[in-house]
Specification:
Elements lengths: L5 E5 L5 H11 L3 E6 L2 H10 L3 E5 L5 H14 L5 E4 L14 H29 L3 E7 L13 H18 L5 E7 L2 E2 L2 H6 L8 E2 L1 H13 L8 E4 L7
Length: about 230
């Protein structure tokens, strides 16, 4: 039976989710990785001894319950929950399909609610734990062509703040990491082909900040943390 503390990370893809998983494993955690793509999770699990694949669609409440049951049986109750799953769409409010906005809301906001409701009781009973939410620029502003994303990320940030105000006095640290940048990925490099290296934010650097949040002393907890490259205009 494994004795490492347990972290659960949603949205484990090729960028931020994988980087957070690597950092948590390096820091001594056993990581339950959640995403819809089983093949990607299996490949990372093969690479990292203490990373475990749990394919799950976080918009499906029954799937969430089944997956959390499996995580608890295999690893134990999570001490850390990182909600990194994200759904987005480009288009103004006249262009977007309302069903797409609703699905993004289910991924970004409702999945946070469902998972936090199920994971927080164990953290409260221990008097410790952490919930970290990764946001982005749309968490604070609604640009015209982000009508399919911004409302859901803003709601996610407000929900995280509400959770933080409830759980903080009970010993559970809740934080929101606002990523105001283009993450360095294969597809973003292709889209911004002429951009210099320092235009992009590195997934490993985001993961390091998540790790830093987990190490903060209780006398100096952060809630909203903003990350951006040094050349970013803001």
């Amino acid at each position: 039976m494994q004795t490492r503390p347990v972290a659960l990370v949603t949205g484990v893809g090729p960028g931020t989710g994988s980087a957070i998983t690597r950092r948590l494993v390096a820091g001594g955690y056993a990581v339950a990785m959640l995403a819809r793509t089983a093949e990607r999770l299996d490949a990372l699990a093969d690479e990292l001894t203490h990373a475990h694949a749990f394919p799950c669609d976080v918009t499906d409440v029954d799937a969430i319950d089944a997956t959390l049951g499996a995580v608890r049986r295999v690893l134990g109750a999570p001490d850390v929950f990182v909600h990194n799953a994200v759904g987005g769409a480009i288009g103004n409010f006249m262009q977007i399909d309302p069903a797409v906005l609703n699905r993004n809301f289910q991924i970004n906001t409702m999945a946070l609610l469902h998972l936090a409701q199920r994971l927080a009781p164990d953290m409260i009973s221990r008097g410790s734990g952490a919930i970290i939410v990764t946001g982005n620029t749309s968490s604070l502003r609604g640009r015209a062509n982000f009508a399919g994303l911004a409302p859901t990320k803003a709601a996610q940030r407000i929900l995280a703040e509400s959770i933080a105000r409830e759980l903080g006095p009970k010993g559970v640290h809740v934080a929101h990491v606002l990523i105001d940048a283009v993450i360095d990925l294969a597809w973003t490099r292709k889209r911004w082909a002429d951009a210099p290296d320092d235009f992009f934010i590195q997934p490993a650097a985001i993961a390091d900040e998540v790790w830093h949040l987990l190490q903060q002393d209780r006398s100096a907890w952060s809630f909203n943390v903003e990350l951006r490259p040094f050349r970013e205009t803001w």
